Amino acid sequence: MTERKPRVRFAPSPTGMLHVGNARTALYNWLFAKHNGGSAILRIEDTDVERSEVRYEGLLIEDLHWLGLTWEEGPQMGGSHGPYRQSERLPIYAEHTERLLAEGKAYRCFCTPEQLEGERAAAVAAHQPQIYSGRCRAVSMEDSRKRAGAGELYAVRLRIPEHPIRFKDLVRGEVEFPAEAVSDPVLVRSSGMPVYNYVVAVDDALMEITHVIRGDDHVSNTPKQVAIYEAFGWQVPEFAHLSTILGSDRERLSKRHGATSIASFREMGYLPEALMNYLALLGWGAEGGTRETFTPEELVREFKLERVTASPAVFDTGKLDWLNRHYLKLRPIAEVAQLAWPYFERAGYVGSREKVTAEIAEWFERLVAVFLPGVDHLDQLPEKAAFVFALDSAKSRADAENAAILASDMGQRVIGAFTARAIAEPGPITAERFKALMNEVKAETGAKGKELFHPVRIVLTGAHSGPEFDKIIPLFEDGSALRLGVKSVAERAAAFF
Predict the structure, then answer these.
(1) C-alpha span between 221 and 79 (Å, rounded)
(2) How far is CA 122 from the centre of its chain?
(3) Is 166 part of a structural domain of the chain?
(4) Within a domain: residue 475?
(5) Taking the model in full, what pTM does it have?
(6) CA dist list (Å): 455 to 294, 435, 467, 479
(7) Are residues 357 and 476 in the same domain?
């Protein structure tokens, strides 16, 4: 018998944004498929009619593409196992439900909500498991058909066999559930809508999924799905349940920990290769366990499910920031500048990129290069570079440390000497000319080191520390010449007081 090539699926519900946990699940499925020469399928689980929205489907697909994930079959490109939206597969589920009823492997349950609630309350009072009593198991097929034909409402339940349900988990090993712990699960509600565990099992079987890789919150669902496989006589796939992702407080990751959606990280200016790299490390490590940076191609080559741990992974924003800084350094500065432009445009510092000249583009690249080492993600750049575009002198003077420097006798002398020379300059002040001016101020005042440079830096940038002068002086002068609303050195000196 020829061994089947792996087929995996990522099956999100379009009820909200794509979050870190689901994105990691999608990534592990993709890496497993690529590593083993298999196929990745995207399936949209939209049977929750009240919460599912088309816009969320579009957004999650956009986020997956941005992250660098692709698939061989799905709702956009189709495939031989479609449709790929569960809402379009309802006739398939109905057909399989009739088969189970005809074979006696499922039965109609006519219990009312009140009866079921009474059973549940009694079980709670007796400190017993809250499982279905099996009241309708004994209803004959003939009586069942008659009652259904007469219009009596019913759900459809799976008849769980009286033996333990076992499955292989590639992360946790062999797992077993006693039959009584599973009870007889509902397959189809009295409304006629099939339930999650039923449609997932049918879809996975008909789409020939060989490995189900998903979060460990689905472990309790798995025995019900295995029982459905067995009822149809289908081959049970192998399972891999991924550990929970925790926040820094070791509680399940949620919005209170900060950004958790892929869209949020995109908006903050993280690079997709950084986020992919980091998500891969949340529960997995390559052979040796010391390496932390991987290109997508290296991840595909190295990824094995055997290296996935069952221990919860802690989401460390600091480590993600470190990886993002690493990948920002590797990107050509022209690309980084292009990605950074929208953040400066939203801050009101630059106009539309469509109207940018080559000279302005080159100046902006130099600007980004100066401030990039000081940020973790691109949305921090405008604040770092704000003084280039708009210097708030009053705010600078109000700062306690600045005020002390400016009020000192030496501070006053240095500022006076520098301002006089800067204003008197007949043309643009180059980095070399600025250095010469500072030497003249040093000779006149006797100031050196911090006493010399801190007062001038406050006048020009609003702070007593920051990027090197030889990098920012050209930005001031060239930005002024390009009419970008940037003040030159002389203009800054003249306007400070």
Answers:
(1) 27
(2) 43
(3) yes
(4) yes
(5) 0.92
(6) 45, 15, 15, 23
(7) no
- The C-alpha atoms of residue 387 and residue 371 are separated, in whole angstroms, by 12
- Annotation says 255 is catalytic: yes
Q: Are 493 and 459 in contact (CB under 8 A)?
A: yes
Q: Which residue has the tokens 């604040």?
A: 383
Contact 294, 280 (CB under 8 A): yes
Handedness of CA 274, 275, 280, 282 (dihedral sign): positive
Between the alpha carbon of residue 358 and those of residues 74, 361, 376, 482, 486, the distances in Å are: 42, 5, 27, 11, 18
Which SS3 state, helix, strand or coil, does residue 123 take? helix
- For residue 486, being part of any structural domain is answered with yes
User: Do 112 and 198 lie in a common domain?
Assistant: yes
For 287, other C-beta atoms within 10 Å of its C-beta total 9
CB atoms within 10 A of CB 218: 17
Do residues 295 and 258 lie in contact, with contact meaning Cβ atoms separated by under 8 Å?
no
Q: Which residue has the tokens 């600091």?
A: 318
Same domain, 367 and 411: no
Tokens 């196992």 belong to residue: 81
Q: Work out the end-to-end distance of the chain between its first and last CA atoms, rounded to an integer number of angstroms.
A: 86
Residue linked to tokens 């301002």 = 419
284: β partners: 308
Task: Please answer whether residues 107 and 159 qualify as being in contact, where contact means their C-beta atoms are separated by less than 8 angstroms.
Answer: yes
**338, 400: one domain:** no
**Radius of gyration of the chain, Cα coordinates, nearest whole angstrom:** 32
**150/169 same-domain check:** yes
Total number of domains in the chain: 3
Domain that holds residue 400: 388-495
Q: Return the residue matching tokens 């399936």.
A: 43
Environment class of residue 394 by beta-carbon count within 10 Å: exposed (0-12), middle (13-18) or buried (19+)?
A: exposed
* Active-site annotation holder among 146, 168, 255, 329: 255
CA neighbor of 183 nearest in space, from 219, 149, 158: 158
Residue finishing a domain among 218, 242, 266: 242
Same domain, 343 and 418: no
DSSP secondary structure letters along 253-276 = P-GGGS--BHHHHHHHT--HHHHH
pLDDT, averaged in runs of 10, over the chain (497 residues): 81 95 97 97 92 94 97 94 96 98 97 91 84 91 96 96 90 89 92 95 98 95 96 96 91 79 97 98 88 96 94 94 98 98 96 92 98 98 96 90 94 96 95 97 96 96 94 97 95 89
Distances (CA, A) of 491 to 58, 277, 338, 411, 496: 50, 46, 29, 19, 9
Residue 63 lies in a domain: no
Between strands 211-215 and 173-177, the pairing is: unpaired
Q: Which of 120, 111, 226 is closest to 163 using CA atoms?
A: 226
